[in-house]
Design a protein that fits this description.
The structure holds two protein chains of two kinds. By secondary structure, chain A is mainly beta. Chain A is 0% helix and 54% strand. Helix content of chain B is 0%, strand content 56%. The chains are: A mainly beta, B mainly beta. The interface between A and B is medium-sized, with 28 and 28 residues.
């Protein structure tokens, strides 16, 4: 049972445009959500997170939106840059567990 | 960058042999994790530790054991490696303060393990 789903395995975007990566979850107990970026031959790098008490969190070019009623979160990257080309994982957890459930990843390619 | 070192970075071994992967951290974080990454499956939790000698199973723990005798070291052992355990293995740490899980994990650079 995949509790965190990333239904798009890949996405291509032109440089300078917006990239939107999506993630759906099924467990309503999740209260903290994270996005990670992963380059080949490296470990995942923490990008941005959001608590369930918020519906938006921004950090520079990166914004995460949370829609609790739809059990959906998205990562917006504006403007997209070629260096953003990587695999992006969303993850979720809930208080007290310290266990994180990851999605299967979306490969983003930003075209110059 | 978080001080996490995984060793070895690459290993090729034969079916039936024992294999131990090491994760070493310099952050004094309470929680340590082992994941495997496979195409189509993302990152799946194998085992994790919430303190010295305190460990628990993740979603894909069969065929793996772990040990944590010191805060800084978390070992993953494949007692008798099988070809299905060919994967990239990642160690992660998190601070683990208080009751809130609102803390990111930080990852090592991985170990690529091939079992022939």
């Amino acid at each position: 049972d995949q509790q965190v789903k990333q239904n798009s395995p890949s996405l291509s975007v032109q440089e300078g445009r917006i990239s939107i990566l999506n993630c759906d979850y099924t467990n309503s107990m999740f209260d903290y959500f994270l996005w990670y970026k992963k380059y080949p031959a490296e470990g995942p790098t923490f990008l941005i997170s959001i608590s369930s008490i918020k519906d938006k969190n921004e950090d520079g070019r990166f914004t995460v939106f949370l829609n609790k009623s739809a059990k959906h979160l998205s990562l917006h990257i504006v403007p997209s840059q070629p260096g953003d080309s990587a695999v992006y994982f969303c993850a979720a957890t809930f208080s007290g567990t310290y266990k994180y459930i990851f999605g299967t990843g979306t490969r983003l390619k930003v075209l110059a | 960058d978080a001080g996490i070192t995984q060793s070895p970075r690459h290993k090729v071994t034969e079916t039936g042999t024992p294999v131990t992967l090491r994760c070493h951290q310099t952050e004094n974080h309470r929680y340590m994790y082992w994941y495997r990454q496979d195409p189509g499956h993302g990152l799946r939790l194998i085992h994790y530790s919430y303190g010295v000698k305190d460990t628990d199973k993740g979603e894909v723990s069969d065929g793996y054991s772990v040990s944590r005798s010191k805060t800084e070291d978390f070992l993953l052992t494949l007692e008798s490696a099988t070809s299905s355990q060919t994967s990239v293995y990642f160690c992660a740490i998190s601070e683990g303060m208080g009751q809130s899980s609102n803390q990111p994990q930080h990852f090592g650079d991985g170990t690529r393990l091939s079992i022939l």
